[in-house]
Amino acid sequence: MPAVNRDWLALTTESALEPELPICDPHHHLWEQPGNTYRSAELLADAAGGHRIVQTVFVECMAGYTPGAPPELAPVGETAFVVGEAEDAAASPTRVAAGIVGFADLLLGERVEAVLEAHLRASPDRFKGIRHAAGWHASDAVRNSHTNPPEGLLLDARFRAGFARLAPLGLSFDAWLYHPQLCELADLARAFESTPIVLDHVGGPLGIGPYADQRAEVFEGWKKAIAELAQCPNVVCKVGGLQMPLNGFGWHHWERPPSSLELAASTAPYYLHCIEQFGPARCMFESNFPVDKVSCSYTVLWNSFKRLSADLEPEERAALFHDTAARVYRLSAP
Q1: Whole-prediction pTM
Q2: Rounded-to-integer distance, Cα 55 and Cα 53, Å
């Protein structure tokens, strides 16, 4: 992803709207990469912009894997790493990583159960689920997910044998894919009705490569696929993530970052469609930081969510900003 330009982000600053509204940020990452550190201190610095971030959920990003461990067990190191980050932030009013979504290779089939149990031992109170990213596209212009998934991952019999081990352990599944794959996720959801599935980033409507000049066509196809997926009661939707370059809006190329008004105007057709189809009780706003930080600041992003949801009822907004995430990820009260 492009590097975050902090000087550029500082060109657009805003005060937080409705600063008392409780927020659970259900999707962020933490990592230590060469020249690119985003740990609990950096997250808390972003969250200090005036919004009331009461708790968060960490989502896997291949951070802190255990060196020298068998490949299938190395991801357990990420859970231990995040527990350490949460403990470092214990004095903050924000409960960092109240929930952890880790990685386990579901292509291991039934053997993945040992990996899931190892994650749970590493954090019995915080570990909530698995993400095995499935984003795949034939075009070289669209980068596949960091897990290097094969085409048709969600339909694979070995993957489904591993997926079947989640519900018995009380774990959910986060789904990250691209919009042409939404029908595959609907098939998976119908096959495993007792497993909670969380759709990340409104299903990844692509706006690059073969889709660079096809926004209207992509939007119409995406809308229909979202409506079909919403018929699966075990699926909930994370409303956010469109600030990534792969969505094709190109904000990271602007002379200055977009304002919350500009973000809300561009993203509302997508986000409001998801809220309409799933209902607020099955939707949650997300930051996807620091990935989306390439396009806007944390404060501006949450302001955009508050603007586009302003006409909803108070209980609907409470669900979108906090309650759905807390319920789906089984978080204790902050």
Answers
A1: 0.97
A2: 6
